[in-house]
Write a structure and sequence with these properties.
single chain, membrane, TM_pro_TauE-like, transmembrane
């Protein structure tokens, strides 16, 4: 029992830190740790991870909101389609072989970490302001074109929400990484605003995914559930405060390092444990 509690705590803190720092889903950490190290059923582990994601994402979103690093209005379109496809993904996940779900989560953890280190998100608030200034200048001359751009942005947000929501419900990854890429690269958000908006959306998608999983598969291990929820919340609260004061370079390095270490640890246990 003591060993299990230690793993729950490490998984929760690691997940919370990743959520608070870069808007990643807690499930990207908790799911593979519970399945790989403790042998949890993958579907049950995803349910616990998504439940942990709810409060962690909510407290992170509140912290980013207080620091004015969140865009609630423009995230609502993505939120609606994300919620719908989270429920769909959650149902389909119950039909997939459990080993496939668990293995995929393990490899994704390591790949996410490498992605942050090798190819970090490089947008800054200053870059975003320049882009917005140029767009406003063009829009003042061509109003029709501006309306088309705005419509295309809504469409992109809706489609992105479908993809992110499906990933959240199906593999329990919350779609955090994909959402971060979409918000910065496609919709032009600065890094911190993207993270703030991402955790805002994930607080709802995680709730939908967790509810769907628990309705279908039950509450599962109560001790694991409570421990992961509490430690993830604590980690996210501390990390989000740090993230709002840190530079984007530091955020990428720290988050990437955490994910690579955890991913490598789980792979070592999987193949040599």
């Amino acid at each position: 029992m003591a060993y299990s509690l230690l793993i729950y705590t490490i998984a929760g803190l690691g997940a919370g830190i990743s959520t608070g720092l870069a808007g990643l889903s807690a499930a990207a950490i908790i799911t593979p740790m519970l399945t790989t190290i403790l042998g949890f059923n993958a579907y049950e582990a995803i349910g616990i991870a998504l439940a942990s994601d709810v409060l962690a994402s909510a407290v992170s979103a509140y912290t980013y909101y207080k620091n004015k690093n969140i865009d609630i209005r423009n995230g609502l379109v993505m939120l609606v389609t994300t919620l719908i496809f989270t429920a769909i993904g959650s149902f389909l996940a119950s039909l997939v072989p459990q080993k496939a779900l668990g293995d995929f989560s393990v490899y994704m953890t390591l790949l996410l970490g490498i992605k942050f280190i090798v190819k970090p998100v490089i947008k800054t608030e200053e870059n975003t302001e320049v882009i917005e200034s140029d767009e406003l200048s063009i829009a003042s001359d061509v109003l029709t074109s501006a309306k088309n751009i705005k419509t295309q942005k809504y469409i992109k947000s809706a489609v992105a929400g479908c993809v992110v929501g499906f990933i959240c419900g199906f593999i329990g990854a919350g779609g955090g990484m994909m959402m971060l890429i979409i918000l910065t690269s496609v919709l032009g958000y600065s890094l911190k605003t993207a993270v703030g908006t991402s955790v805002f959306i994930m607080s709802f998608t995680a709730f939908t995914g967790a509810t769907s999983h628990m309705v279908i598969g039950g509450l599962g291990d109560i001790v694991a559930l409570i421990t992961c929820v509490v430690t993830t919340l604590l980690g996210a609260w501390v990390a989000s405060k740090f993230a709002n004061k840190a530079t984007q370079e530091k955020l990428n390095r720290v988050t990437g390092g955490v994910l690579v270490i955890l991913g490598a640890l789980m792979l070592s246990i999987k193949f040599f444990g």
